[in-house]
C-alpha cells in the first residue's frame, strides 16, 4: 500500500472520462483500492475516485457518516463501499444545495446542487453486484464520486459561482445552528 499523489483541478486526468474495469477481481484492482483508501484516509476524505490518484478507471470508494448522514432515513448513510463500474439512476427531480469539498480542489468549498434520491449499481471487488438506494448526504457523495469518472469536478455543477469560497472562510456561510467547530473536520471527497 502507498499514499499516492492526488491530482488537482486542472490536471487532464480529472477532465476526461475514465475507462471501465474488465475484471473487478483482478489483484491489481485490489491493490489500487488499497492505495485509494490509504490516500483518502491520509487526506481526511470521505470518498475518492481512481482518477484522483492518476488512474483513469471507473472505480470509487466512499462512505457517508457523521452528522450530515444522520437522520430518520437510514438510506442517508452508508458504510465504506468500494464500487467498480458504478451507474446512477436518478429517482425524482428534487435537488438540494449543500456544501462540498474535494481532495482535488484543496482549500475550497462550494455549494452544489445534487439530486436527493437515486439508485446506484456496480460491482464489488468480489465481482458481485451491489445495488442500493441512497438519499441525502449518501446520494450527494455518490454523485460527487461518480462525476469524477466522467471528468466533472464539483465547481462545474455549481449554480452560483459566488458560493465557491476558501475553506478558512466557510464558518461565515454555515447555518447559525451549526457551529464552525462541528464542521471543522468535515470530510472532503
Ligand atoms: Ni472529489
Please characterize this protein's 3D structure.
The protein is of the alpha+beta class. The protein has a single domain, classed as Alpha-Beta Complex (Peptide Deformylase), CATH 3.90.45.10. 19% of the residues lie in helices and 28% in strands. It contains 3 helices and 8 strands, in the order αβββββββαβα. Strands 1-2-3-6-7 form a 5-stranded antiparallel β-sheet, with helices on both faces. A hairpin with a 5-residue loop joins strand 6 and strand 7 (129-135). The protein starts with 26 loop residues before the first helix and ends in a 6-residue tail after the last helix. The mean pLDDT is 94. The protein binds nickel (II) ion. Nickel (II) ion (NI) is lined by residues 102-104, 144, 148, 189. Nickel (II) ion (NI) binds next to helix 2.
Short description:
The chain is of the alpha+beta class.
Amino acid at each position: 500500500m502507498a499514499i499516492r499523489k492526488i491530482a488537482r483541478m486542472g490536471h487532464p486526468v480529472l477532465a476526461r472520462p475514465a475507462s471501465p474495469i474488465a475484471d473487478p477481481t483482478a489483484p491489481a484492482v485490489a491493490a489500487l483500492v488499497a492505495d485509494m483508501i490509504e490516500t483518502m484516509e491520509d487526506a481526511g476524505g470521505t470518498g475518492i475516485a481512481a482518477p484522483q490518484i492518476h488512474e483513469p478507471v471507473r472505480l470509487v470508494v466512499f462512505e457517508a457518516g457523521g452528522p450530515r448522514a444522520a437522520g430518520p432515513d437510514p438510506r442517508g448513510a452508508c458504510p465504506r463501499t468500494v464500487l467498480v463500474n458504478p451507474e446512477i439512476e436518478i429517482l425524482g427531480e428534487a435537488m438540494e444545495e449543500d456544501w462540498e469539498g474535494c481532495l482535488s480542489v484543496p482549500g475550497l468549498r462550494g455549494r452544489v446542487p445534487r439530486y436527493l434520491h437515486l439508485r446506484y449499481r456496480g460491482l464489488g471487488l468480489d465481482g458481485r453486484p451491489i445495488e442500493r438506494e441512497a438519499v441525502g448526504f449518501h446520494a450527494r457523495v455518490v454523485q460527487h464520486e461518480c462525476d469524477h469518472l466522467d471528468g466533472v469536478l464539483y465547481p462545474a455543477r455549481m449554480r452560483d459561482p459566488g458560493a465557491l469560497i476558501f475553506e478558512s472562510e466557510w464558518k461565515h456561510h454555515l447555518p447559525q445552528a451549526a457551529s464552525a467547530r462541528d464542521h471543522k473536520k468535515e470530510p472532503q471527497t
